[in-house]
Amino acid sequence: MSKEITKIYNLDELTSRLDSVREGKRVVLCHGCFDLFHAGHLHYLKEAAGMGDLLVVTVSPDRFVDKGPFRPKFTESVRAETIAAMSMVDFVAINEWPTAVETIELIKPDVYAKGADFKSVDDDLTGKLGLEADAVKRIGGGLVITSGPVYSSTTLINRYFSPLPESVKSYLLNFRDRIGIDGVATVLEQIRSIRALVVGDVIVDDYHFCDGLGVSSKDSVLAIQHRRTETYAGGAVAVANHMAHFVDRVDFIGVVGDSDEYASFVNSKFHPNVHPVLFPRAGKPTTVKRRFVDAYSLKKFLEIYIMDDHELAEKDDAEFIGLTRDLMKNCDLVVASDYGHGCISARHRGILSDQSPFLAVNTQANAGNRGLHTISRYQRMDYGCIAQNEFKAELRDYNCNVRSSIASLTQAVNAKCMTVTQGKKGCIVYEKERGLVEAPAFNLDAVDRVGAGDALLAITAPAACAGVDLEILAFLGNLMGGLAVGIIGNSRSVDREQMETAIRSLLK
Fold first, then answer.
1. In this structure, how many other beta carbons lie within 10 angstroms of the beta carbon of residue 139?
2. Which stretches of the chain drop beneath a pLDDT of 50?
3. Are the CB atoms for 51 and 27 separated by under 8 Å?
4. 47 in helix, strand or coil?
5. N or C end of the chain, less CB within 10 A?
6. Is 377 helix (H, G, I), strand (E, B) or coil?
């Protein structure tokens, strides 16, 4: 083992090692991602080393790197080895938490040094530096911002090491020059004041992670070994939870079964900014989509649906519509997240079309309703959002070209604006007055495509309601969807900080 590699310890070993050598010495701690080591990092470490006798550097672990899509470029072990190769560095460790707070409390440095790209605690939009500064103060140390030159790993990676196709890089360069980070940030602030109502199907996503064993010895069936089960609140609940990170208030109304115990589970899964009304469906189950997933590859090999897609009984439907009407009185935006599982009846669709202040509609096809549940079931809408396969089903033409057909479909369904998602190809947005916009996708490898359309709807619906530039709407939608496919099921939402980090990462 080389001399440099022996500088690397786990945090427990590092603490013990420091205790044996730190007496009478001034300890300086640096912490960061160090993804693509550059001259700015070198100046930062040199200046920090001059502030004391022992320089300790901790590296953000891969799982907590929040620099945006496709990051980190280099693994935590490679980044740690690179830092250890610097002669001014005495000790290196890979951090175990999202911030350096716990590490500061463990190591108790005399100085916590941050690079010159952090101008001050107040300028750090993530709030992490403020937490770290408080931790340094608690242990009696001091926070110092270095004064060396500022470079950006993100900018260098975007310019020279981006894994995105050339066409996407060209699009981002053009978007960066014309609109930029500030233009997108303005839109995020613009939609914050919107009050939204999400109406739609509650779906429980039940994931069973398994290992394949092979064919059963007694029957010609696949045998699998169960590893674990994870259950998430999906469907319209996921739309509301995503949206809650970006607008001031989200009201929610949807149906759950009264023949099972999922109501309390679903109720516990709403974001604090969502105010839910769960309407019990007499004698019916909550819609459950049970997926069996390979625990290693995360590929699905079987889905089982527990559902009853009949509409609510007439009396229940009237009560449900009445509750919806009451909630609509105080909102700016109504989002119909309609999966065709009986939550929104034909009469309810008519009320939404006639009385919503601004109506955004998403109708989704599934194995049980393909070709039967289409967006034209709504009489009108201000904004429609559907996937390419649903677009083609609406036109009854699987060979149609979305680009040349979107204007006619938008007019046919009495919509003002329409987005059609195209998976890896990105999305197309059309509005008669402002024309057509195409934007590419920003993700490379999808972990799970479930919920990507819900995430896209959650950001584009308020953007459409606010009348934002169609290019920014398409950019935000694709970025939101790209972040969502990196999440298993609806295990968590795409939050505002994650979105802002991704925006800076792509446009820096």
1. 14
2. 1-4
3. no
4. helix
5. N
6. helix
pLDDT for residue 446: 75
Please, where are the H alpha helices in 256-379? 262-267, 314-328, 346-355
| Strand 381-387 relative to strand 415-421, pairing | parallel
Q: For the chain, first and last CA: distance in Å?
A: 38
Residues 6 or more apart whose Cβ sits within 8 Å of residue 447: 298, 485, 486, 487, 488
What is this structure's pTM?
0.79
Torsion angle, alpha carbons of 493, 59, 76, 4, to 10? 180
Other residues' Cβ atoms within 10 Å of the Cβ of residue 369: 16
Q: What confidence tens digit (pLDDT) does each residue in 82-134 have?
A: 999 999 999 999 999 988 999 999 999 999 998 877 766 666 656 688 888 89
User: Residue 216 contacts by C-beta under 8 Å, 6 or more apart in sequence?
Assistant: 222, 223
For residue range 148-172, what is the model confidence (pLDDT) as tens digits? Answer: 777 676 666 666 566 677 888 889 9
For 313, which DSSP code? Answer: P
Distance of CA 418 to the CA centre of its chain: 22
Q: Check: CB of residue 74 under 8 Å from CB of residue 47.
A: no
pLDDT of residue 1: 38
Cα 238 from Cα 242, distance rounded (Å): 6
Cα–Cα distance list, 24 to 18, 49, 355, 373 (Å): 12, 16, 74, 74
The confidence score (pLDDT) of residue 2 equals: 45
Q: Using a CB cutoff of 8 Å and minimum separation of 24, what contacts does 358-361 make?
A: 358/332, 358/333, 358/334, 358/382, 358/383, 358/464, 358/465, 359/334, 359/383, 360/333, 360/334, 360/335, 360/336, 360/384, 360/385, 360/457, 360/460, 360/461, 360/464, 360/465, 361/335, 361/336, 361/385, 361/415
* Per-residue confidence (pLDDT) for residue 3, from 0 to 100: 44
